[in-house]
Design brief:
Number of strands: 0
Helix content: over 70%
Strand content: under 5%
Mean pLDDT: 85
Shape: rod-shaped
Structural class: mainly alpha
Low-confidence stretches: none
Oligomer: single chain
Order of helices and strands: HH
Number of helices: 2
Number of domains: 1
Radius of gyration: 25 Å
Length: 102
Amino acid sequence: MTFGLSLGVFVLMMYYSVKMKGALGYGKEFLTHPFEPNLPVKILLAPFNVLMNIVETVSKPLSLSLRLFGNMFAGEILFILIAMLPWWASGRCPSCGPRSTC
């Protein structure tokens, strides 16, 4: 479920990047983003930059899905802890029974 949601967000990110920058602008950013406007440097480092951008692009949905799973899991744990608070306040263990002294 979380991977599907992250793929949806990823597709939207790609769509709006191309829509706002244009296909040529997005390709230019993909090839030359962190480098100075010096042409020989861009040409020499473009293959490495493309490789790094491919790794970044492929890992983004996985990263988003794991972050979403972690946030959902933490929220569920907090909900369970808050729901268990009345039993902890009363001093009884809900899993052992009402006369338990654990």
